[in-house]
Design goal:
Layout (H helix, E strand, L loop, with lengths): L11 H7 L6 E6 L5 H4 L1 E5 L8 E10 L2 H8 L10 E2 L5 E7 L11 E4 L10 E5 L3 E3 L6 H4 L5 H11 L8 E4 L5 H12 L3 E6 L5 H11 L3 E4 L20 E4 L3 H10 L4 E5 L12 H7 E5 L1 H7 L5 H16 L7 E5 L3 H8 L8 E5 L1
Parallel strand pairs: 9-10, 9-12, 10-11, 12-13, 13-14, 15-16
Antiparallel strand pairs: 1-2, 1-4, 3-5, 3-7, 3-16, 5-6, 6-8
Helix pairs in contact: 5-6
Length: 356
């Protein structure tokens, strides 16, 4: 039965006085944990109210990081409640601002800082404390990706061992974005790098690419299947610091290179295999750190200003051409193809960055 009461029309002018709203947003959404290629879907989200201290940003780019995948799988310790929109890092232009916002206006280029959930969508509304204004000439793809990976590389180099020029670092996962940044940031400080990569088609090309970035030594894992790995190099000192993002046997290779009293820092586990450390290494040789929550602390509101100073330093290196890394820009319409590449379903691929 149809209602006989008249339908009341609320004009757009009246609504504007009551609340400032964002545009509708197209987003990568998931309402349960599981394989990202099956639990994510593209949906339309309704407009969101923009409160006094909020900013609405039209996203331009956002990367697919391993931690994003782990959050969707439900295995990453720090993750948003369900249902959720994917993504944790990105950059865009200001669309509109709340009534209490000063110093930022529509058209300004901003990045998410510190990282926070929900960046895989066309429009994001967050409190102003989560946005950092950038120079308009900043390359968008770097603005979208500099926080998690390059900053991880910088903090690991600076915080665990007091490295001097002439010292050395050993790392696995050297072709990763963090690995590429470690090589370049170390070279700027006069620090040598020994780099371990997987055995795969194209490994010779990968070695040459890393050496062009400044790597001193690059080995595949099979090349290191010898009793005395240190006999393979003579011009590089025994490393004081090692980085592990793979786990399993690749972590053991990092330990083999370290000098007595050296330090291995683990920041990832791409192989999804446990790290095995011999008793003698624990007692006589190395200190082992697991720095996931250490880095999470750095990327928090409590240290936001300090973090942004380091980001400005990294942007300076990028503008000078002293810091670069491989990325592939993928249109948002091809999100699931980019996701398949990030999951390794299409072979070894560069970092996938979604372009909105």
């Amino acid at each position: 039965m149809h209602s006989l009461r008249p339908r009341i029309q609320i004009s757009d002018k009246v609504r504007a006085f009551s609340a400032l709203m964002s545009p509708p947003s197209t987003a990568v959404f998931y309402d349960k944990h599981g394989p990202p290629d099956t639990v994510t879907k593209i949906i339309q989200l309704p407009p969101v109210e923009i409160k006094a201290n909020d900013m609405c940003v039209k996203m331009l780019a956002s990367p697919i990081n391993p931690s994003d995948i782990n959050r969707i799988e439900g295995v990453y310790p720090v993750r948003p409640p369900l249902p959720a929109v994917g993504g944790y890092e990105g950059a865009g232009v200001v669309h509109s601002v709340g009534s209490a916002i000063h110093g930022l206006s529509p058209g300004d280029l901003v990045m998410v800082s510190p990282p926070s959930a929900g960046t895989w969508q066309t429009h994001v509304v967050k409190d102003k404390v989560f946005w950092h204004k950038l120079d308009k000439d900043t390359p968008v793809e770097y603005a979208a990706t500099v926080t998690i990976n390059p900053l991880t590389a910088l903090r690991m180099i600076e915080d665990f061992v007091d490295l001097k020029s002439g010292d050395a670092i050993v790392q696995n996962g050297a072709t990763s974005m963090v690995g590429q940044c470690v090589i370049q940031l170390a070279k700027l400080r006069g620090i040598h790098t020994i780099n371990i990569i997987r055995d795969r088609p194209g490994s010779d090309e990968a070695k040459e690419k890393l050496k062009k970035l400044g790597a001193d030594e690059v080995y595949t894992e099979s090349q290191l299947d010898v009793k005395n790995v240190k006999s393979l190099f003579s011009n590089v000192p025994e490393p004081a610091l090692g980085f592990n993002c793979v786990g399993g046997n690749a972590a053991s290779l990092v330990l083999k290179f370290l000098r007595q009293g050296g330090t291995m820092v683990t920041y990832g586990g791409m192989a999804k295999k446990p790290i095995t450390v011999s008793t003698s290494s624990f007692i006589f040789k190395v200190r082992v750190f697991f720095n996931r929550f250490y880095l999470q602390n750095w990327l928090s509101l409590d240290r936001n200003e300090e973090c942004r100073e380091m980001l400005d330093y990294l942007f300076g290196l990028i503008r000078q051409g002293k810091l670069e890394y491989d990325m592939e820009l993928a249109p948002f319409s091809k999100f699931h193809t980019a996701l398949d590449k990030s999951l390794g379903k299409l072979g070894s691929q560069p970092k996938q960055v979604i372009k909105f």
